[in-house]
């Protein structure tokens, strides 16, 4: 629901309809009792009455994930793991093409069927080392996952078209990567174009606090062409280089911890979710908690569409066996058994309800908007 009527707003704020209408007139809006208002207008009216507006979104999963004991790993249990890479950048600068180019050089050459991609993540091997590439966290998904505290990416590839330069979403991507504290590698794309001007890109990046190595900074940049494959191998090598410096590690011998990359309801399979395993190993039959969803892993499928029985750190798998469809950005925890999983979910749901009640005692416009 994206609208609320004057009457509904008056009711939730415990005001007279006429008072609301008067305020609306003050804002230059001629309203009737059944007039529909959008969220922003409703919020302005609420604040005009001095009513505190507490959005429901304030109750995040973070508030309720205090119910799982996450034991820290002992340093001796940590093993190197593959880097997880997200491609970001402005619209049309070539993010998808770049991922395709990477897969083409690394996948199609081996697989007759062409680009195999079954889930929103893919793995490529470079010099016998694995790199996990996330497709989904296109810009918005990444933003919302970040806002929810989910950290899925180790390295951000920032694609900047050499003929277009730094654009608004490039700057947003820079800010996201900085906020997430992940290293950035710049891919200056579309180098095949006659109008390509990499120096301009470098200058504009410098203007936004990204100083590349050539210019005395510490950010690696690689001029590439997703179209003709120029320097794609170099880019991949740079990813491995950065990964080596960062020394990503995880403990494969513990219960799995991961994050939902995407999830949906499948007619045949029920709730399916693509999970990036970040620590531990997920196995068929494991009981899991994901947000307010639980389940037992019935089947797992890797990025090549093959069934697998185990998935270790830095692996993306599609899982089935969940009670409901979880949300992107939700964290997965494997737990001892179903009983524990169910108990945790019940506790979480109750806690969210209690928090919502608390919020609604002030006034929650969001609740009003989402209920109806
Ligand atoms: P959105 O997902 O819409 O944000 O775009 P994107 O960043 O994924 O860009 P996409 O890969 O869809 O490419 C946009 C356009 O640029 C397409 O027409 C591509 O063919 C073209 N393109 C991508 N890479 C290159 C390149 O290296 N050289 C040239 N000449 N064109 C490219
Ligand atoms: Mg795209």
UniProtKB/TrEMBL annotation:
The keyword Coiled coil applies. Keywords: Coiled coil, Cytoplasm, GTP-binding, Initiation factor, Nucleotide-binding, Protein biosynthesis. Residues 83-231 are annotated as: G-domain. It is found in: Cytoplasm. This is Translation initiation factor IF-2. The chain holds residues 128 to 499 of 705 of the full protein. Residues 80-253 form the Tr-type G domain. GTP binds at residues 89-96, 135-139, 189-192. One of the essential components for the initiation of protein synthesis. Protects formylmethionyl-tRNA from spontaneous hydrolysis and promotes its binding to the 30S ribosomal subunits. Also involved in the hydrolysis of GTP during the formation of the 70S ribosomal complex. Its main location: cytoplasm. The keyword Zinc does not apply. Belongs to the TRAFAC class translation factor GTPase superfamily. Classic translation factor GTPase family. IF-2 subfamily. GO terms for molecular function: translation initiation factor activity. It comes from Alkaliphilus flagellatus.
């Amino acid at each position: 629901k994206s609208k609320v009527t004057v009457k509904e707003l008056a009711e939730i704020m415990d005001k007279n309809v006429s008072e609301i209408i008067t305020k609306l007139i003050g804002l230059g809006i001629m309203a009737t009792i059944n007039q529909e208002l959008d969220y922003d207008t409703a919020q302005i009216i609420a604040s005009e009455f001095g009513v505190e507006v507490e959005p429901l979104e304030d109750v995040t999963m973070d508030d309720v994930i205090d119910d799982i004991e996450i034991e820290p790993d002992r340093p001796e249990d940590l093993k190197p793991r593959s880097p997880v890479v997200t491609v970001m950048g402005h619209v049309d600068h070539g993010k998808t093409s770049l991922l395709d180019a990477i897969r083409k050089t690394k996948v199609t050459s081996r697989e007759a069927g062409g680009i195999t991609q079954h889930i929103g993540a893919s793995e490529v091997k470079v010099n016998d080392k694995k790199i996990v590439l996330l497709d989904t966290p296109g810009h918005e998904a990444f933003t919302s996952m970040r806002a929810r505290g989910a950290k899925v990416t180790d390295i951000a590839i920032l694609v900047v078209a050499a003929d277009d330069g730094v654009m608004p979403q490039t700057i947003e991507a820079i800010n996201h990567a900085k906020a997430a504290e992940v290293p950035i590698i710049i891919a200056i794309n579309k180098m095949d174009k006659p109008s390509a001007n990499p120096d301009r890109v470098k200058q504009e990046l410098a203007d936004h606090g990204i100083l590349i190595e050539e210019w005395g900074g510490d950010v690696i940049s690689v001029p590439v062409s997703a179209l003709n494959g120029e320097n794609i191998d170099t880019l991949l090598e740079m990813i491995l280089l950065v990964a080596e410096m960062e020394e990503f590690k995880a403990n494969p011998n513990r219960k799995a911890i991961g994050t939902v990359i995407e999830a949906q309801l499948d007619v045949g399979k029920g709730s399916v979710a693509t999970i990036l395993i970040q620590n531990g190993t997920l196995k068929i039959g494991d009981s899991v908690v994901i947000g307010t969803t639980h389940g037992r892993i019935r089947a797992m499928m890797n990025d090549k569409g093959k069934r697998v029985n185990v998935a270790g750190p830095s692996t993306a798998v599609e899982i089935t066996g969940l009670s409901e469809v979880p949300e992107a950005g939700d964290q997965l925890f494997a737990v001892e058994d179903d009983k524990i999983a169910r108990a945790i979910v019940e506790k979480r749901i109750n806690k969210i309800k209690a928090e919502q009640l608390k919020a609604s005692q002030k006034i929650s416009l969001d609740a009003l908007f989402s209920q109806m």
